[in-house]
Design a protein that fits this description.
single chain, alpha/beta, Maf protein, seven-stranded mixed sheet, 24% strand
């Protein structure tokens, strides 16, 4: 079964690629053809699930007859009332230099988001920095959502980044049971543990027996 991922995010594409390799007998995932020429839709829904559904429907209308996979994912921090949430990729831009911290152009978007998060958590003790990653997936065909699935991973936000193999908030997202951040674990373990990997496994369970 061939699924077309509607994302240009290199980190997400890498995760999807690892998943496809891990589940190589079940399905393959490829970038949606011509994605760069398709105007990006608004991502203004209040939940991950709603954003994933809207994106899957939108992009599937540009790819008749193709199974289009869209995701929306992010970080939820308990001490921040669930923020950044659906605004995870735009968290630093929303903050606009919180508390005078310089989030200038010398930093990447991911680095800016991490600085913004650490600033907001500066006075939160280590035992109060629980967080979770959440991923919602939606699979659509010709403008109709066929299946949705979700995945979640619990962890703790560190006070300083560690590791270089992840993306987004991975250098800050610590897994106590492994003693590593998501930016320090190997690709195979990452896709097994991650919110995106878990969402994909749940989606596969729904797809079993359905091979257009």
């Amino acid at each position: 079964m061939l699924l077309h991922a509607a994302t240009s995010n290199p980190g997400k594409l890498r995760d999807f690629g690892y998943a496809a390799e891990f589940y190589r007998e079940a399905f393959a995932i490829q970038p949606l053809p011509g994605l760069a020429t398709i105007p990006a839709p608004a991502e203004d829904e209040p939940t991950f699930d709603a954003n994933a559904r809207a994106k899957a429907v939108y992009y599937s209308r540009y790819a008749p007859g193709r199974l289009v996979l869209a995701d929306d994912s992010g970080l939820e921090v308990a001490a921040l009332g669930g923020a950044p949430g659906v605004r995870s990729a735009r968290y630093a831009a929303d903050q606009q230099q919180p508390n005078g911290v310089d989030l200038g152009p010398a930093l990447t978007v991911d680095e800016r988001n991490n600085v913004a998060l650490l600033t907001r958590l500066a006075r939160v003790p280590e035992d109060g920095r629980q967080a979770n990653y959440r991923c919602a997936l939606a699979l659509a065909l010709d403008g109709e959502v066929l299946h949705t699935a979700e995945g979640r991973l619990d962890g703790v936000i560190l006070t300083a980044p560690r590791g270089s193999s992840g993306f987004g908030y991975d250098p800050l997202f610590y897994l106590p049971e492994y003693g590593l951040t998501m930016a320090e674990i190997n690709p195979a373990l990452r896709i097994e543990l991650s919110h995106r990997g878990r969402a994909l496994r749940n989606l596969l369970a729904l797809l079993e027996g359905r091979k257009p």
